[in-house]
Design a protein that fits this description.
alpha/beta, Alpha-Beta Plaits, Rossmann fold, eight-stranded mixed beta sheet, five-stranded mixed beta sheet, 8 helices, 26% strand
Length: 315
């Protein structure tokens, strides 16, 4: 069965970049092991990789852009060549041919039963940001696996997160660098209005770079467009920072692909309140920003509210 996510109305004869994951059944870890954030192929994994390259030669209309063989699944980024009237069908032949060849190898080694889950998923990358996000996802997937399966060492969890910097009477959870709240760091709590347009971002981000150079650790909910731009800058510039989540952090925390390298580099603290809310509401966001402001002031730092036009207010 082909578990597809086709974008209906898209003309696939124009060509397309596709993200295609497929998994073993029942999640048998046969392709690799994860060491140091890298996938180290097993003997069978090397056989499977060779079959992927052979399949690429047999279906030249489908180009292999990126791949990773995880212990129990495979991620592929594939390019459907433009000008094909049956691009999706050829994608199916590519994936089906690869899986059949690997399954045959599996049987030749004397293993009973099936190897793969039935069918596969596909997802079209509709723009460059999506494409780059998929590429990062594939590149960082082994590291994410390692973080998820060895979290005691790499993404330590403190629950409850007991610190006088956060309001009493609320159950807080912290993941990552909880020592950011031990009183040794000056914290700059940041709230950026949605009214701040992109034209104001360069000057705004420069001021936050200055704050970083002065030793501040930035904390925010990173919800508004300006805050998300700040998150990207912090991630790209080797900064340490605090991300406050508005909804409950689940018991088994799965880092996002953006968080994965940050946790590995010990640059990130994620904090969240225990709540039943599945979606953050305005009143919750305001309360969270208020808690961050008090946290920053308690740590000898500052609270910054960037308003329309990029105007800074300090508290």
């Amino acid at each position: 069965m082909h578990r597809c996510h086709h974008y209906y109305g898209y003309d696939y004869s124009r060509g397309a970049v596709m993200f295609v994951p497929t998994s073993t059944e029942p999640r048998q870890r046969v392709f690799s092991r994860i060491e140091g954030g890298k996938a180290v192929l097993s003997d069978f994994g090397r056989m499977a990789l060779n079959e992927l390259f052979v399949t690429t030669g047999r279906v030249p209309e489908i180009k292999l852009s990126r791949y990773v063989f995880m212990p129990d699944h495979v991620h592929m980024m594939l390019w459907i060549t433009p000008g094909l009237p049956d691009g999706l069908a050829r994608l199916g032949r590519f994936v089906g041919g690869f899986k059949r060849a690997v399954r045959q190898r599996w049987k030749e080694l004397g293993h009973p039963g099936s190897l793969w889950q039935e069918g596969y998923h596909d997802l079209i990358c509709l723009d460059r940001d999506f494409m780059e996000g998929v590429a990062r996802y594939i590149d960082y997937n082994p590291l994410k696996w390692e973080l998820m399966h060895t979290r005691e060492g790499l993404i330590p969890i403190r629950e409850p997160l007991d610190t006088p910097l956060l309001p009493d009477g609320t159950y807080w959870k912290g993941i990552g660098r909880s020592d950011f709240l031990d009183g040794s760091r000056r914290i700059c709590a940041v709230r950026i209005s949605r009214s701040v347009g992109e034209a104001a971002f360069p000057a705004m981000l420069k001021r936050f770079r200055d704050a970083l150079s002065n030793g501040f650790c930035i904390a925010s909910t990173f919800l508004s467009p300006g805050e998300r731009a700040l998150y990207r800058m912090l991630a790209a510039e080797n900064a340490e920072f605090i991300h406050a989540k508005g909804t409950a952090i689940p018991v088994v925390y799965r880092p996002t692909i953006h968080e994965t390298p940050l946790f590995a580099a010990k640059r990130l603290l994620v904090i969240g309140r225990q709540t039943d809310e599945r979606e953050i509401r305005r009143k919750d966001c305001l309360a969270l920003n208020d808690a961050l402001a008090k946290m920053a002031q308690g740590a000898g730092g500052a609270a910054v509210y960037v308003k329309e036009g990029g105007r800074f207010d300090f508290a």
